[in-house]
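Worked problem 6 (solution included).
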Amino acid sequence: MTSLMIQGTSSGAGKSTLVTALCRIFSDKGYSVAPFKSQNMSNFAYKTIDFEISRAQAIQAVGARCEITPDLNPIMLKPVGNYYSEVFLEGKKFKRMHAKDYYSKFVKGQGLKTAIKSLKNLEKNHDLVILEGAGSPAEINLDKFDIANMKMAEKVNSPVLLITDIDRGGSFASLVGTLSLLDKKYQKLVKGFIFNKFRGDEKILKPGFRKIKEKTKKPVLGTIPMFDFDIPEEDSLNAKPKDFVWNKKNLEKIDIEIDKLSKLVYKHLNFKEIERLLK
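Solution. The predicted structure is:
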């Protein structure tokens, strides 16, 4: 078993979309692959009679062509206002918790144990697990409570790729700043950068790529262009997700969109280098 983790410089950087594409690419290459996000805050869920997880991980599972199980997203938080969330644990409603109690009483104990257990289950059953981070790994005020980013990468010694949304601006500073705020033991796990949602001629970015490598000793592994696709979004920054009905027609449509997305991503990433990281 091996693993790869995608983290971002911010919410909405493109982590979920990139994981979806990578799941399909590696599935096409013959890997038994599964997505994983230890903790996800979302009001959009995939529900069955038996369990409920974030919709994003269910869609990533479609990309991976793997079974949708609670292990893909062992902790889901549904915000209900006034700093309270409904906490779902291993697909089941656990309890309503205030953010203060969640961080001080739950995360580092039961939360972390549950996340590691689910990740180990996926490791046993798949060649490759593609982990998705949450928000940014450089939220230094919450670092000791963060079980969705570098701590999880450390648990499985996973290489980390850091993605940034260049359409928002400030991407070079975001990448360098994010890396510099990580502990040195975590900086070593970050193996490269990916720029997302680029418009224009990539040649104008080359001087910046050279400069960022000089400063960080990490390469840029690809630039993904702005691309319209019809896959339900997460309820993250600037996104306006729509409800989604899990019927055969919609799943076939999503499958086609994931194929288009994966082909685009494959074309614009340095996959030889990414596969080398997994060896």
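Discussion: The mean pLDDT is 93.
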